[in-house]
């Protein structure tokens, strides 16, 4: 599947503007992580772009989220490791994240939310004014961006990355697509 086909598929199944932006952010960070680790950037990008493909169908049934999406992606012939990463990104299932891609997607999903929330509290509402120390301060505020699980973000250690390095990679990747994110 090409990136363009994946984008069309995501837009077909996800109508919410902010959820579309979230998928684009996760894609950007996954691509940056693939470059960092010398992995297949296209594959990792597909996992990021399509990870929430079923969210609008399953939002009221978290136990089904990512399972339905994984089925859809399997039927479309996506690679098994992409399908597994999508399935395993939902911690609700308790699936082991056995490879680098699934570990990366799991930790990246909430990181993008933390980064967006940090940009939105600034008067400029732009990623350009955010840096890692600012993110680290927000990360340690328990009441800030409660939906961005700190435990899940901290799973970046399973990638061999420090929290600061992970945030740096994620923030820089999102800055590259700031226009698409409206930030």
UniProtKB/TrEMBL annotation:
Domain HD/PDEase, first and last residues per copy: 15-123
Entries under InterPro entries matching the protein: HD/PDEase_dom, HD_domain, HDIG_dom
PANTHER family per record: METAL DEPENDENT PHOSPHOHYDROLASE, METAL-DEPENDENT PHOSPHOHYDROLASE
NCBIfam families: HDIG (TIGR00277)
Record organism: Neomoorella humiferrea
Taxonomic lineage: Bacteria, Bacillati, Bacillota, Clostridia, Neomoorellales
Record-given protein name: Phosphodiesterase
């Amino acid at each position: 599947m090409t990136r363009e086909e994946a984008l069309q598929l995501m837009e077909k199944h996800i109508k919410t503007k902010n959820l579309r932006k979230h998928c684009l952010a996760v894609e950007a960070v996954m691509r940056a992580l693939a470059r960092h680790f010398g992995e297949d950037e296209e594959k990792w990008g597909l996992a990021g772009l399509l990870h929430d493909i079923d969210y609008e169908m399953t939002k009221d049934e978290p136990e089904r989220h990512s399972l339905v999406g994984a089925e859809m992606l399997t039927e479309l012939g996506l690679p098994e490791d992409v399908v597994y990463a999508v399935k395993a990104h939902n911690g609700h299932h308790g699936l082991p994240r056995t490879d680098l891609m699934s570990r990366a997607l799991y930790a990246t999903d909430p990181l993008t939310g933390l980064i967006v929330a940090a940009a939105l509290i600034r008067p400029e509402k732009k990623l350009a004014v955010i840096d890692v120390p600012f993110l680290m301060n927000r990360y340690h505020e328990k009441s800030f961006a409660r939906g961005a699980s700190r435990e899940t973000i901290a799973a970046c250690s399973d990638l061999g990355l420090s929290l600061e390095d992970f945030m740096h990679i994620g923030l820089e990747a999102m800055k590259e697509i700031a226009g698409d994110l409206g930030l």
